Amino acid sequence: MENLTIHWRGPETAPAVVLLHGFMGLPSDWDPVCDALARWQVGLVELQPMDPATFLEALNAAVRHRGLTRVALGGYSMGGRLAIFCAMQNPAQFPILIGVSTTPGIEDTKERETRTAADLELASRLSALKSAEEFEAFLREWWRQSIFISPRMHSGLLDQLVESRLDLSPAALADFHSLWSSGTLPSQWEAIENYPGPALLLAGSEDKKYCDITKGMQQRMAEGTFEILAGCGHQLLWEAPQELGWSIHHFLEKHADKL
User: 244 vs 53, 112, 114, 137, CA distance in Å?
Assistant: First the structure.
């Protein structure tokens, strides 16, 4: 079985929340968010490319090794898709779900096929990068996509994001995209209707696509809560970490009896 590294912080006797970073992300992306989560035991996962079922097994084992039987599970973007997948497979271990700028996948078969082809093309492009200069150019192009444009996404933040990712492996990123893209991960739209626990679903007001997706998720879930962070786009971990952290904190406080 694959081993999974989780960086734990906070009091070991406190209820726990495990957080998954996004594509081209790092566990430390959650650090500013965690400032509001000081009262909780927080686990930040170092994601490694592996098939979804293997990842779920590794995550279950890592949580149990910590001596925990139930944890809240959350994720941003790609990490959110993975968190939704894991929580749907094992709601007893993950009785609270937190999704940040994320989606349960793609329901429509033709749309999935189109997206899968595009995802594989992007993975192939990443695998073909041969130099640090090519990778930096790719990163700058990636974060100039329209989905990342918002009032809080400025040139200084773009430079910061690019510089902090230069040590990542393009080959590993290609594997992530091949394994966990929204075209590849099985759709969980039907599964979320049967999720028995509370779910906090967040999106930025300027991220219209994910506002619609998140609202659709909330409408299908028995205990879904939809929150919009004003003036923000897709990248809530960088655009509004304090607001995001306090939203998560208050939600966990409300449902702490489930942990």
Answer: 29, 30, 32, 30
Backbone angles phi, psi at 68, to 5 degrees: -110, 140
- The partner residues of 74 in beta bridges, in order of sequence, read 19, 98
**DSSP secondary-structure letter at 145?**
S
pLDDT in tens, 62-74: 999 999 999 999 9
CA distance 102 to 84: 9
**Nearest CA to 68 among 94, 88, 96?**
94
The tokens for 42 are 């927080």
229: number of CA atoms within 13 Å, CB side? Answer: 29
Average pLDDT estimate for 176-180: 89
| SS3 readout for 12-37 | CCCCEEEEECCCCCCHHHHHHHHHHH
Q: What does pTM read for this prediction?
A: 0.96
Sheet holding 72-76, edge to edge: 5-9, 41-46, 16-20, 72-76, 96-100, 198-204, 223-229
Identify the sign of the CA torsion 14, 31, 97, 180.
Answer: negative
What b/e sequence results for 178-211 when a residue is b if at least 16 CB atoms lie within 10 Å of its CB, and e otherwise? bbbbbbbbebbbebbeebebbbbbbbbebbeebb
What would the pLDDT profile of 113-133 be if each residue is shown by its tens digit? 899 898 889 999 999 999 999
